[in-house]
Amino acid sequence: MTVTLSDIEAAAKDLKDHIIRTPTVPAPALSAETGAEIWLKLETQQHTGSFKPRGAFTKIQSLTAAQRKAGVVAMSAGNHAQGVAFWAGRLGIPATIVMPKMTPFSKVERTRALGARVALHGDNLSEAAAHAEELSRKNGLTFVHPYDDEKVIAGQGTLALEILADAPDLDCLVIPIGGGGMASGIAVAAKALKPGIEIVGVQARLYPAMTEVLRNQPPTSGGDTLAEGIAVKSPGVITRAIIGEHVSEILLVEESAIERAVQRLAETQKIVAEGAGAAGVAAILGDPSRFRGRRVGTIICGGNIDSRILASVLMRGLVRDGRMARIRVELSDAPGRLAAVASLIAEAGGNIVECYHQRLFQDVPIKHAELDVVIETRDADHVREILDRLAKAGFPPRLLSATKEAGAVL
Predict the structure, then answer these.
(1) Which of 265, 300, 322, 380 shows a CA-CA span of 20 to 30 A to 316?
(2) Residue-number span of the structural domain to which 274 is assigned
(3) How far is it, in rounded angstroms, from Cα 157 to Cα 180?
């Protein structure tokens, strides 16, 4: 069986009264920055905060009465788990979700709160998948694959119908790829509706599994990535055939680019995206010349980012842009010296956020003290202005935080 536009249109009809019709919106700030006309499909506003309920519903609603009674099983550490749990709970179908033992508690509890039974098994997704398949065979459960399933692909493909209805003049779609379910469904529908549209895939450089499979290269995927939603080591068999036919190129993005995209979406477009959801924007920002002058759509496919990680991304962005800096100053351990440094920073327009005054360690001379100051600044030029002012006043500084222009960590 292959997935066709008719399958995707049928899925859209079934989904019509069950999912949120998320908007496709222009991104003026990103457009001005890149020279492309950028449109964003906001699946962050979908049930459970990602696109996954589309494919999950399409698969689950196709089950026979006997299959529904027996129940479903799925493997996931995140968005797919919640998508399956959401619809299984709504439709009264027993659901078991196998998650790796190290899955964060918050994700486990969100999945349980949707009514699913959660089984923690294995140290990674591969081991969890093997256990889910074993439960499927042993207990007669229907396995709902996260991407390598025609029904799931058709459900994800409904995204393309909505995007092209909202922004029919797009000439390029940039789509994050993990296992390939979303990219496959979108590619089939978009190419059928608009044959001249270009489909560009995006993968995290640490997880180039689909790229390597299509090029017959040995697998190298592994490591910690902000884009865990597309951190797939074994792409689908069905999906690789579709992507090989319809996707013109797969771009690989670095971790720093993904982090930057999450920051830019939050700050300039007021959109909270997880790493995988920002991967398309990362690719566009990373190579703006490839997209300049074109009408480009990308899917913000998920917004389920840990609050602590998001806070860290935003704070690191301030440092990278020179809007926050950490400076070390060695000064004589005498009355008024700390106040003098603080006054110089204030006169230069810097705002002290934190201050660490150290005089006990042996690498500091006995009559000296070391002062680390975290300050809010306007930009990299402002950081340099403060450094120069301190140096001229007899307080030679060292920049401990890297900024985009002010230099590397010293």
Answers:
(1) 300
(2) 5-51+149-316
(3) 11
